[in-house]
Amino acid sequence: MDTARDRQEFNAVYARKIATLTGWLMVVTFVASIPAYFILYAPVRDHPDYITGTGADPTASVALGAVLELIVIIANIGTAVVPYVVFKRYSESLALGYVAARLVEATFIAIGIVSLLTFLLMRQEGTAGTDAALGHAFVAIYDRAFLIGPGFFAGVANGIVLGYLMYRSGLVPRRMAMLGLVGGPLVAASGILVMFDVIERGGAVQGIATIPEFFWELSFGIYLIVKGFKPSPMLAGVDGEPVSPGANS
Fold first, then answer.
1. Count H helices, E strands: the chain?
2. Where does the signal peptide begin and end (predicted)?
3. Is residue 1 in some structural domain?
4. Residue among 158, 184, 186 nearest 172 (CA)
5. pTM for this entry
6. Within-domain flag for 93
7. Please, which residues have CB within 8 angstroms of residue 55's CB and are 6 or more apart in sequence?
8. 170: left (phi over 0), alpha (psi -120 to 50) or beta
9. What is the DSSP letter of 230?
């Protein structure tokens, strides 16, 4: 016979599985995105004139970077969709907002992928001629797409929205969530400052501004893998109706 305790135990196991999968997806975004941006795309980002056919062939590195970023897109969306059933119990609007912000971020990542794959196609087919300006244009599109996606919307999604959800719900330690509430606005602000040419893209100021957000996202993923969501009234009926936010105030 099904009892309230049986249902509660089932919901706890279900929530733990959601937390673990969400944590792994968050870690995957790190594992896949860092080598793509800093290593695999480096040849064309540093030498856009490669499009004319001079210099080393960047096919292998760019193609592998594109594959990794496709994985990043899937993982990014997953970090918002998988825990949605838990997050909406605090605030359905914020849970939907997190999904939307992750989708926008993923869209700009996709734009960046297409720009570099177009660069690669023109290099492979020799259709760029001697006009190195085309290579610079495609790389510039990638850089601006990266600035708006991971450089701005990641701060909004993971820092501000997710940080606020976690801080108010108490599903992870609130001191940890504070890293997101601090780091998110810093990442978003640094992206805007780069747009206005106030600070240098990829410079020291922007690098420092990303540190709290970096540790927030990484610690969030690892915490969910190791411990899962903290016990909360919100998880008492994960598959039921949302509880009042006042239950966790």
1. 11, 0
2. none
3. no
4. 158
5. 0.89
6. yes
7. 43, 47, 49
8. left
9. P
Place of tokens 């004139």: 49
Q: Is residue 56 part of a domain?
A: yes
Question: Element (H or E) spanning 22, and its range?
Answer: helix 4-35
Structural domain total, the chain: 1
Phi, psi of 68 (to 5 degrees): -65, -40
What is the spatial distance between Cα 243 and Cα 235, in angstroms, rounded to a whole number? 9
Q: Return the residue matching tokens 């970023």.
A: 69
Q: What amino acid occupies position 172?
A: V
Domain around 64: 8-235
User: What are the pLDDT digits (tens) for 73-127?
Assistant: 999 999 999 999 999 988 999 999 999 999 999 999 999 999 999 999 999 988 8
What Rg do the C-alpha atoms of the chain give, in angstroms? 21
Q: In this structure, what DSSP letter does residue 227 have?
A: T
Question: Is residue 249 one of the residues assigned to a domain?
Answer: no
Q: Which residues contact 145 (CB under 8 A, 6 or more apart)?
A: 108, 109, 111, 112, 115
- 189-228 residue pLDDT tens: 999 999 999 999 889 999 999 999 999 999 999 999 999 9
Per DSSP (E only), the strands in the chain are none
Residue at 210: amino acid letter: T
CA trace torsion 95, 84, 209, 73 (10° rounding): -120
DSSP string computed for 72-115: HHHHHHHHHHTTHHHHTTT-HHHHHHHHHHHHHHHHHHHHHHHH
